[in-house]
Design a protein that fits this description.
Layout: H1 3-35, H2 38-59, H3 62-68, H4 74-106, H5 111-118, H6 120-126, H7 129-137, H8 141-164, H9 170-190, H10 201-225, H11 227-235, H12 238-272, H13 277-304, H14 306-314, H15 322-332, H16 335-347, H17 351-372, H18 377-403, H19 407-435, H20 441-462, H21 466-472
Helix pairs in contact: 1-8, 1-12, 2-4, 2-5, 2-6, 2-10, 2-11, 2-12, 3-7, 3-10, 4-5, 4-6, 4-10, 6-9, 8-9, 10-17, 12-13, 12-15, 12-16, 13-15, 13-19, 13-20, 13-21, 14-20, 15-18, 16-18, 17-18, 19-20
Length: about 475
């Protein structure tokens, strides 16, 4: 199968998985948001950082090393499997005994049992990490999709039933654990791989020498990705954590569906052509422009219609999350570009530079928090916008050196797309404000959405935007990667 056909097939299945998972999760979230209180979502938001760090510690970046390796065998897979399992057990015990400290930090005693039960996800996930890495390396996203969707459905059903029967915050914990457990079980059944009783110290050192830098980078990322939940949880109320979490998860619906799905395909794809810089640059440029072309109008239009969307989907009690959501949408437009620039470093084997850039960015985030904290949550979020812009130029520094595609060149390539999106958003705002106020929320959302999309695509067609034309031809074998 050609590289382009493999990539397109992978994209189709990955998008199917992402959209399926996200839509299932979104429907479940809608139901739970109407039953549970913002404070209960806030409790889960408070511990998100600790769960994320535990999962990261369990893998130590070794799965990424497996995916990029050209020379590998059963010893590699088995060695990584047993390390992941041992690390996950250690991570769980560390979290178990740290639970009282976490609860004390937030002054929420209920977090002790929640942390200890939620932490079991580390061990469940560790049993399937290598299976996922093998499937990703082989670009077998079909199997991953056929595993993820049933797991999400089953976990969602459990969560909704628990919520309706009065389990409160435990319905969120139960849903998460069941989803992870079912996914792991199905991966063992369908992946076609089982570990051998092998642990090769030399193989471990090879993978660890690459992976530990990614792990350190990942720790920094997870801490600072969740730093706003920590800060809001410490200095503000649990309800405000819930509002921020709701804004973040709603924003992730389009961003996760599109950019994360593409990221799963692009990493092994970039790894296949990592030694051909001309080809790598061309593929990178096409994918970057395409994902921004799809993500930007969705985020802009959603931001303009945010109050209507939140009131219609989540009811009036979630309206305080609207301004958070609008600012997060602005931040998220650049998210896929950050990820793809860093993927270039990974496939080039420069996890040391990856770590270096992450340290620079975290210093910026910490400075922004110190400056804006006393000004309130909105100021904190605007600080994120400024940091994201600076991070773009930090992330593109080495991409410019490795594949001759600088931050200035990338900016020049996406500016027309951002202009089309801003124009469509302005038109939607004007029409909704001056002509649609007498209609219900659903009518205003639908009309505004269709008009915004029409303006965006019409402008892209008028200016013959390359990403628009590429999307039209995506499934036609005209342009080889």
């Amino acid at each position: 199968m050609s590289l382009k056909k493999t990539a397109i097939t992978g994209l189709i299945w990955t998008f199917s998985q992402q959209f399926g998972n996200q839509m299932i999760g979104f429907v479940v979230s809608l139901i739970l948001a109407r039953i549970l209180l913002p404070e209960e979502f806030g409790l889960i938001g408070m511990i998100a950082i600790f769960v994320a760090l535990g999962n990261l510690f369990s893998t130590a970046g070794l799965s990424q090393s497996l995916i990029r390796s050209s020379d590998f065998n059963q010893e590699d897979y088995s060695t990584v499997f047993f390390f992941n399992l041992a690390a996950s057990i250690l991570a769980y015990f560390l979290l178990f005994f740290s639970a009282p400290l976490i609860a004390s930090f937030y002054s929420k005693p209920i977090l002790i049992p929640i942390v200890r039960v939620q932490g079991l996800s580390f061990i469940f996930s560790a049993f399937a990490t290598v299976q996922l890495a093998r499937l990703t390396k082989e670009m077998d996203f079909k199997t991953q999709t056929l595993v993820a969707i049933p797991a999400a459905i089953f976990g969602g059903i459990v969560g909704v039933v628990m919520a309706y029967t009065g389990y409160g915050v435990w319905s969120l914990v139960g849903s998460s654990l069941i989803t992870t457990a079912v996914s792991t079980t199905l991966l063992w059944i369908y992946s076609g791989w089982m570990p051998s009783l092998i642990f090769n110290v030399q193989k471990f050192r090879e993978h660890f020498s690459f992976g530990y830098k990614l792990t350190v980078s990942g720790f920094l990322n997870k801490i600072f990705d969740n730093i706003y939940l920590i800060v809001i949880g410490k200095y503000f109320t649990a309800a405000q954590v819930g509002f921020y979490s709701r804004a973040e998860t709603t924003k992730q619906l389009p961003v996760t569906n599109i950019s994360v799905a593409l990221n799963r395909v692009t990493y092994p794809l970039f790894a296949n052509i990592k030694d051909d810089n001309i080809r790598l640059k061309r593929v990178y440029k096409q994918l970057m422009q395409m994902v921004v072309f799809v993500v930007a109008p969705v985020l802009v239009i959603l931001a303009v219609l945010a109050e209507l969307v939140f009131r219609f989907l989540f009811t009036e009690k979630w309206l305080p999350a609207v301004p958070y959501f609008q600012i997060l949408c602005a931040i998220s437009i650049l998210y896929p570009i950050h990820a793809y620039n860093l993927n270039v470093l990974n496939v080039k084997g420069r996890s040391d530079l990856f770590l270096k850039l992450e340290i620079y960015k975290k210093i910026l985030i910490a400075a922004a928090i110190v400056v804006t904290l006393k000004l309130g949550i909105i100021a904190l979020l605007y600080g994120q916008v400024v940091v994201s812009i600076f991070a773009f130029f930090i992330n593109t520094h080495y991409t410019g050196k490795f594949i001759d595609y600088s931050g200035f060149d990338q900016t020049k390539d996406i500016l027309p797309i951002l202009f089309y999106a801003a124009l469509s958003g302005a038109v939607v705002f004007f029409i909704d404000t001056y002509t649609l106020l007498k209609f219900g929320d659903i009518v205003r959302i639908l009309v505004g959405g269709f008009i915004g999309l029409g303006i965006y695509l019409g402008t892209a067609h008028l200016f013959k935007n390359s990403s628009f034309l590429e999307l039209l031809n995506l499934f036609q074998k005209r342009k080889p990667l």
